[in-house]
Amino acid sequence: MELLQEIAVRVEEGRQNDVKSLVETCIERGISVSDILNDGLVAGMSSIGVKFRENEVFVPEVLVAARAMKAGLEIIKPILLREKVQSRGTIVMGTVLGDLHDIGKNIVCYMLQGAGYDVVDIGIDAPGEKFVEAAKESGAQIIGLSSLLTTTMVYMKEVIGTLRASGLGDRVKVMVGGAPVTQAFADEIGAHGYASDAASAVDVVRRLLGN
């Protein structure tokens, strides 16, 4: 148990090499990969997420912690796949058409991965059809739309329309976020969820998926 707590602390500190070494030690000692994931890597990212939400740390610290978490995740991923450890859900994430900003989206992706979700990141400048195609291929339960510009956030409504026209509207939920986006705008376009920041996005996903 001490090893798992140490992994969580090292993730929070962003110490990639320490995280790798500790994860390898846990595997050698027969600690289950689901425990390594949940009580080590996810716990560390959850802690940094709380601090981020409360303005105790900022974007650079989150990015460093995310890289440390991913370093550990890469080691256990093959074992997770072999053991078929169940994902908490799949989310397609992307920045909408016409918008080339991705820092906020990337942080949300890291936070969701750190919380135990599978994330399909389709990048920036993504049309509605690309979101729908990725959701079909991955079996995603949620599509996350990001925008940093008032001129591009209006495209979120078109993506929702494309999703409904595809027949996935009843199965796939949509969450939106980005600097100009508000709860009122999310309600207006028919989104299922709105997150004001990356840490809140994890809470929204948990609520939408009931886990």
Descriptive notes:
The structure is a single chain. With 211 residues, the chain is α/β, with parallel strands linked by helices. The protein folds into 2 domains: 2-83, Methyltransferase, Methionine Synthase (B12-binding Domains), Chain A, domain 1 (Orthogonal Bundle), CATH 1.10.1240.10; 90-209, Rossmann fold. It is 61% helix and 11% strand. The chain has 10 helices and 5 strands. The chain has helices spanning 2-13, 16-28, 33-53, 59-83, 103-114, 128-138, 150-153, 155-165, 183-189, 198-209; strands at residues 90-95, 118-121, 142-146, 173-177, 193-195. A 5-stranded parallel β-sheet has the order 2-1-3-4-5, sandwiched between helices. Helix 3 packs antiparallel against helix 4. The longest helix is centred in the middle third of the chain and has 25 residues, at 59-83.
